[in-house]
Design brief:
By secondary structure, this protein is mainly beta. It has no helices and 43 strands.
Length: about 600
């Protein structure tokens, strides 16, 4: 009887090749030569198919891993290709970021079709860019040029966006202009050197723009040049400029104690410039014949000069010998902002953090420091940091009797002695004093101005209010009554913040640009072409272009600005206070000189703005 027999064969532990093998399941091989037919959807690299080199005329499906060994021409790949390197030809669409070097002809590469990229970053672009679209044939490349000699040739091969600095007067020329149709020159203006431009430039307006001369390193000027004949001729224009404003301060009038800051005690009857530039403010407050001055520069530093016997100059000095005739910096801080105020014996000023600081005479507690100790250097009032910093939002009065300031929430605070009941707290006792800020009723105060005798203020609804001494009709109530709390002046709601008050005279501007005055008028300080007192607001002339007003002393001297930048004065002209180069009295507004760049009034002068 026959039986099945089993034959034992020793295992083969090396690779073998079997032509035409049909395999189902898992095939593991170090190499594989030939063609794979059938559906390979389940083949996953590293799992179902572990190969080294694949040679194929075409490959359909997803390919992950290192495709460095994928060879063939063409290598048509469809789907997603992720590889650390790729060698060979590539046809089809690429979606995503391409990083590395691209060589060859890219004529068929279209953004969003053949190549969809975000940012193209390259160390260098070859060619003149004439075949590029959407950029133009004069694409920008930048270069730095220093003009340190009599002639400066700008080679446009190295870029047509030129950052130009100067250390010498120079004549500029262009080289390699053929392929460059547009040139931009950005000039730093912290130099006073001149530039002579090529004759082939035709300037817009007929002449080359004026070169800025500004010491601020942040200033610059941009010139543009356009050629339509490959650099034979150019049309040129000044495209923009950035020059921080230069300001100059001018003073005039009585010069006792050197308070004009001109290094002498000589009175002036016409404006004289204080040394230096970039003055942001002079003292814009008070209504006394002020012999002390405090000012701020645009760099945030604080300066003072004049009479400082009470420590009001902040220079850590007191006594009658403290007389400074030229500006001296107060401390070293450079974070002062707003409009410092000083009036005869004390001062206050703001810092950028919203704090309020004071110095000077303090026997009535008017420094607001909760004591009566005098201060000869800036000292902070409390710890609040919400004090407003506008020109018309605070006041300091003579003899240490009153300070007042508005906070950013519209509340109005006063402190000092209640002399002539000017604190407005509805107290008739003139001996009352407050050594720290006390709030007046209301939260919609907008401006305040006054002296030790009387105060005027406006609210956000455009109404005007007054309190304190009114014996000259200066309360504006059509009487000579003194009021111990705020009382509205008339019913008008068109008053601006421009209200200036001395002890006896008031000037104010309405929203329609008209100027109004009332009160004491012996020197014609009301500007009404007479010396008759008024106890209610009366319009000054018919002009509708008034923009700022400032009463300069209790002696009836007034000044104002118009919207055209002209400066006007009237009233008492003792010591040449009107700046009109004479000592005559004027009872109506009279223009000082012909300048049209006055920008800010102060008690003893004004500021000009120079571009």
């Amino acid at each position: 009887m026959s039986q099945e027999k089993a034959q034992l064969i020793a295992p083969i532990d090396s690779s073998f090749t079997v032509p035409g093998v049909t395999v189902s399941g898992v095939l593991t091989a170090t190499t594989f030569d030939g063609t794979i037919t059938g559906v390979a959807d389940s083949i996953t690299q590293g799992k179902n198919l572990n190969v080294g080199v694949i040679t194929a005329l075409s490959f359909a499906g997803n390919l992950t891993g290192d495709a460095g060994g994928l060879i063939g021409s063409p290598n048509t790949v469809a789907g997603v290709v992720t590889a650390t390197s790729f060698i060979g030809g590539l046809t089809g669409n690429i979606t995503g970021d391409v990083i590395g070097n691209a060589t060859g002809v890219g004529g068929s590469i279209l953004q969003g079709t053949n190549l969809n990229v975000g940012i193209a970053t390259a160390w260098k672009w070859y060619g003149d860019g004439s075949s590029l679209t959407s950029v133009g044939s004069s694409a920008y490349a930048a270069q730095n040029v220093t003009a340190s000699a009599a002639e400066t040739i700008i080679d446009l091969t190295y870029g047509n966006l030129v950052y130009l600095t100067q250390s010498s007067d120079t004549t500029v020329g262009f080289a390699s202009t053929a392929a460059t149709q547009q040139v931009t020159i950005v000039r730093n203006t912290d130099s006073s050197n001149t530039i002579t431009w090529p004759d082939r430039i035709t300037w817009s307006g007929g002449s080359a723009p004026t070169l800025l001369d500004n010491p601020d390193s942040a200033a610059f000027q941009v010139f543009r040049f356009l050629s339509v004949d490959t650099g034979l001729t150019y049309n040129g224009w000044e495209e923009m400029k950035n020059a921080p404003t230069i300001t100059e301060a001018y003073v005039w009038g009585r010069a006792v104690y050197g308070h004009l800051g001109l290094n002498d005690n000589v009175s002036r009857s016409s404006p004289m410039q204080i040394p230096g530039t970039n003055w942001a403010t002079l003292n814009t407050g008070g209504g006394w014949s002020n012999y002390s001055e405090v000012a701020r520069k645009t760099d945030g530093t604080l300066w003072s000069w004049g009479y400082g016997s009470k420590g009001q100059l902040g220079l850590n000095q007191t006594g009658p010998s403290t007389k400074i005739s030229s500006p001296i910096q107060v401390g070293s801080d450079a974070d002062w902002i707003g409009y410092p105020k000083i009036d005869h014996h004390m001062a206050h000023m703001n810092k950028s953090d919203g704090s309020l600081w004071t110095m000077g005479r303090n026997e009535f507690g008017a420094l607001g420091l909760n004591d009566t100790v005098w201060r000869s250097s800036p000292t902070q009032i409390g710890t609040d940091t919400d004090w407003a910093t506008g020109r018309t939002e605070s006041v300091v009065s003579k003899d240490g009797r009153l300070q007042a300031s508005i906070k950013t929430d519209g509340t109005l605070w006063v402190w000092g002695r209640n002399y002539y009941v000017q604190l407005g707290l509805n107290q008739s006792d003139w001996a009352v004093m407050y050594s720290s800020p006390v709030q007046l009723p209301g939260t919609n105060w907008r401006s305040v101005h006054g002296t030790s005798d009387a105060v005027g203020a406006t609210k956000t609804d455009g109404t005007l209010w007054s309190w304190g001494y009114g014996g000259q009709g200066n309360s504006g109530q059509n009487n000579k009554t003194t009021y111990s709390s705020p009382k509205q002046v008339g019913t008008d709601t068109t008053w601006t913040t421009e209200v200036s008050v001395t002890g006896t005279t008031v000037n104010a501007i309405k929203t329609d640009g008209t100027l109004w005055s009332w009160g004491y008028n012996n020197y014609g300080g009301l500007g009404l072409n007479d010396v008759v007192k008024r106890s209610s607001p009366t319009q000054v002339g018919t002009d509708t272009t008034w923009s700022q007003v400032q009463n300069c002393s209790d002696y009836g001297t007034s000044k104002a600005l118009k919207t055209d930048g002209t400066l006007w004065m009237w009233g008492n002209n003792q010591f040449g206070r009107l700046g009109l180069n004479n000592l005559a009295q004027y009872s109506s507004p009279t223009q000082i000189g012909t300048a049209t760049n006055w920008s800010l009034l102060s008690q003893n002068g004004a500021i000009k703005t120079i571009e």
